[in-house]
Design a protein that fits this description.
GO molecular function, one term: UDP-glycosyltransferase activity
CATH topology of the largest domain: Rossmann fold
Shape: globular
Keywords: Transferase
Strand content: 5-15%
Distance between the termini: 12 Å
Largest sheet: 5 strands, parallel
Order of helices and strands: EHEHEHHEHEHHEEHEHEEHEHEHHHH
Protein name: UDP-glucose--sterol glucosyltransferase
GO biological process, one term: carbohydrate metabolic process
Organism: Streptomyces lydicus
Helix content: 40-55%
Mean pLDDT: 89
Length: 428
């Protein structure tokens, strides 16, 4: 029996996919722990995994919803136009994370599985313990000429420009992790080495990296080195007998399929404004709607007399999305993939970081309307624009046909199974 430690940090979408990976490894006979923030302990334990704590929980430490620790993701550079303050916030998050990561790995750990956020620190830990590690990022990070870095908004800079921007992106990440890596190596008794040096060693050694997204959305770049593999999505774990709450089932049974609206861990503190906007757009589009509260705190309490609106908390997208006529969301990697998996059209409202990249991918695939940047929901014409996009998503048969075809392709993939194969090769 092997002891495997998965480490992941960030918001819900950065953590949940690894519960599915961990459950698959556990079913194959491995002992699996998932180290993450306290907010996600119930999620981890429900999947049958051991929970180990990581500090710097963005749900409790973050006062500003645009904090780089959540919005851009500590393992990605701030979006273009990011300030020194964002860089400092991200570096502080990472520094706090480093000490907890070292504590999470116990003496019996045989293998480290690392998210994009934890990998630049986890490699030092693996070196000190003399154990293998495997990177499992959720977004494409290695430089390529095929597209610009995902945090650049999805605009191509040409093949040369894309690769140059990708290399610059890696150098920004190296800088963000420099202080934390220096402290971690000293604590672990390792000789000094910069994050850039450690990264280049891994690249030179051809260390494998498995990317947890589908080639349905992002074909594997033609210029990536051997060992960088796109294996398909890792879906959040949920119990086989899970059902939607009765109040949701009752709402679904009371009329035609509604439209889902949610912004996940984005837009904290803007719930009242966004709720009123969503309700008005749904009414204008003449469709029913389900609002997922999320960190924004969406609610229908201001429309309590409207029987065509319902507010919900956390429910598995795998159960809810197939019952929708369309989904409106911020286009985080996991939510974007969940909409495709459900075979329903999407209205993308990207906020920051990699979200414009995924929004553009959905539109190019023909499963989504043209993206509406989140900042545009503050304009005078926001209700009209959102209502029009919802009408486009729900009324166009071609868009639903594209979504159904994409869902069929996703159903043939087994991302977690590919991780299991790679793990067993490493442990052998």
């Amino acid at each position: 029996m092997s002891h495997i430690l998965i480490t992941a940090a960030g918001s819900h979408g950065d953590i949940a996919p690894y519960t599915g990976v961990g459950a698959r490894l556990r079913a194959a006979g491995h002992e699996v722990a998932l180290a993450t923030h306290d907010s996600y302990a119930p999620l981890v334990r429900a999947a049958g995994l051991e929970f180990r704590r990581l500090p710097a929980d963005p749900r409790t430490r973050r006062a500003d919803p645009a904090d780089a620790a959540d919005a851009a993701g500590p393992a990605q550079p701030p979006a273009p136009g990011g300030t020194r303050a964002l860089m400092r916030q991200a570096a502080a998050f990472i520094k706090e994370l480093g000490g907890g990561l070292a504590d999470a790995a116990r003496d019996d750990t045989d293998l480290l599985l690392l998210s994009a956020t934890t990998a630049p620190l986890g490699h030092h830990l693996a070196e000190a313990r003399g154990i293998p590690s495997l990177e499992l990022p959720l977004v494409p990070a290695a430089p390529t000429g095929d597209f610009a870095p995902v945090v650049s908004g999805g605009r191509s800079l040409g093949r040369w420009g894309n690769r140059a921007a990708g290399r610059l992106s890696l150098r920004v990440i190296d800088r963000l992790y420099a202080d934390a890596a220096r402290e971690m190596r000293a604590r672990l008794g390792l000789p000094p080495a910069t994050p850039r040096t450690v990264r280049r060693r891994a690249e030179a050694a051809g260390r494998p990296v498995l990317y947890g997204f589908s080639e349905v959305l992002v074909p594997r770049p033609t210029d990536w080195r051997t060992g960088l593999d796109v294996v398909g999505n890792w879906w959040p774990w949920h119990a086989p007998d899970d059902r939607l709450p009765p109040v949701v089932e009752d709402f679904l049974a009371a009329g035609p399929p509604p439209v889902f609206i949610g912004f996940g861990s984005m837009a904290g503190g803007e719930g009242e404004r966004l709720s009123a906007l969503a309700a008005a757009a749904l009414r204008r589009a003449k469709v029913r709607g389900i609002l997922q509260a999320g960190w924004a705190g969406l609610t229908t309490r201001h429309s309590s007399a409207d029987a065509d609106l319902l507010t919900i908390g956390e429910v598995p997208h795998a159960l809810l999305f197939p019952r929708m006529s369309a989904v409106v969301h911020h286009c985080g990697a996991g939510t974007a993939a969940a909409g495709v998996r459900a075979g329903v059209p999407t209205v993308p409202v990207p906020v920051t970081a990699d979200q414009p990249f995924w929004a553009a991918r959905l539109a190019a695939l023909g499963v989504a309307t043209a993206p509406i940047p989140f900042k545009d929901l503050s304009t005078d014409h926001a209700v009209t624009r959102l209502a029009h996009a919802i009408s486009q998503a729900t009324a166009a048969p071609a868009r639903r046909e594209h979504a159904t075809a994409a869902a069929h392709r996703l159903a043939t993939e087994d991302g977690a199974g590919e991780v299991l194969k790679a793990v067993e090769r490493l442990l052998a």
